[in-house]
């Protein structure tokens, strides 16, 4: 795999040659729009709805809408003023605790590795220093004429460079939900105990290989079959029995998750029961 960027990791006065690779390979299936009758690929044209004709590229400009049917025209020269000149440096700004970076800020992920033997020792110093202190690095770089904020985390002898969203890009939860609504709910103790039991039954380690992209696999199987002239009959999904009562749904979920976890059936904890004596722990 070819690196997408080469440059330097700058930590204070220390400069380390590094290179960056994609850490994620997006495999989304892409489709083309075709004419149903002849199979020809459809071309999209820029048509002016007022003059009812196709426009040439030089007739099209960019506009920012600031009101109904109101736009500000932005020229290429003005766009260039906003662009930043790409640099060859990832500059570390600050070291912060890993828990301080809210997962909402994470965007793309890349690998940052040393480029050649010259910077191996310095790279190893900071890699080990961050691993042992539990810190991550906030860094800044300019690539493809845009400034990017990064969070560098040690990972298996390299850094994962997470691109972070800027604060202006995040949607405040208050815009979609009234604050404190869930805190006002009167929680039934028995229901809460059953919810905790379900959590305990379904708890385990995160093993990514257990969760493949079933949609893409199934769709690619259909595409291959059609390409080979075979037809695949889609089987309708079996509808699950609807459970009207929340408490009944919780009880059934406890039994189902217990069976899936291979646990022996035990009496369900009743609301208000005291804690188990010291030295003994209740098991779900």
Report what the structure shows.
By secondary structure, the chain is an alpha+beta fold. It has 5 helices and 11 strands, in the order E-E-E-E-E-E-H-E-E-H-E-E-E-H-H-H. Helix 3 (189-201) runs parallel beside helix 5 (246-261). The protein is extended. Residues 269-284 have low confidence and may be disordered.
Topology at a glance:
Elements lengths: L4 E7 L2 E9 L24 E2 L4 E2 L7 E6 L2 E5 L1 H7 L6 E9 L8 E9 L5 H14 L1 E9 L2 E10 L2 E7 L24 H13 L12 H14 L18 H16 L23
Number of helical segments?
5
Averaging pLDDT over every residue, what do you get?
Answer: 87
Provide the structure class: alpha+beta
- Note the overall shape: extended
Most strands sheet: 7 strands, mixed, barrel
The H/E string reads EEEEEEHEEHEEEHHH
Q: Helix coverage percent of residues?
A: 10-25%
Please give the oligomerization state of what you see: single chain
What would you report as the Rg, rounded to the nearest angstrom?
28 Å
Tell how many strands the DSSP assignment holds: 11
Low-confidence parts:
269-284
Please name the defining characteristics of this protein:
Ku70, Chain: A, Domain 2, 26% strand, 284 residues, alpha+beta, extended, 7-stranded mixed barrel
């Amino acid at each position: 795999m070819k690196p997408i960027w080469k440059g330097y990791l700058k930590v204070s006065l220390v400069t380390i040659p590094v290179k960056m690779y994609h850490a994620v390979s997006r495999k989304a299936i892409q489709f083309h729009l075709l004419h149903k009758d002849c199979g020809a690929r459809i071309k999209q044209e820029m048509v002016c709805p007022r003059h009812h004709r196709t426009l040439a590229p030089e007739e099209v400009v960019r506009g920012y809408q600031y009101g109904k049917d109101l736009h500000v025209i932005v020229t290429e020269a003005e766009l260039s003023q906003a662009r930043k000149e790409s640099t060859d440096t990832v500059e570390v700004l600050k070291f912060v605790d890993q828990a301080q970076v809210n997962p909402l800020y994470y965007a793309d992920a890349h690998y940052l590795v040393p480029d050649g033997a010259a910077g191996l020792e310095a790279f190893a110093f900071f890699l080990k220093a961050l691993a042992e202190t539990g810190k991550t690095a906030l860094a800044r770089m300019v690539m493809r004429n845009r400034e990017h904020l990064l969070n560098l985390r040690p990972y298996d002898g390299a850094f994962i460079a997470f691109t972070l969203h800027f604060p202006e890009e995040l949607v405040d939860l208050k815009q979609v939900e009234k604050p404190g609504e869930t805190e006002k709910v009167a929680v039934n103790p028995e229901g809460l105990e059953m919810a905790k039991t379900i959590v305990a039954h379904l708890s385990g380690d995160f093993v990514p290989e257990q969760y493949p992209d079933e949609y893409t696999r199934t769709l690619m199987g259909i595409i291959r079959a059609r390409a080979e002239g075979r037809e695949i009959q889609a089987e309708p999904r079996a509808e699950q029995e609807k459970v009207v009562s929340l408490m009944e749904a919780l009880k059934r979920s406890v039994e189902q998750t217990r069976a899936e976890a291979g646990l022996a059936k035990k009496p369900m904890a009743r609301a208000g029961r005291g804690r188990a004596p010291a030295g003994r722990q209740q098991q779900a």
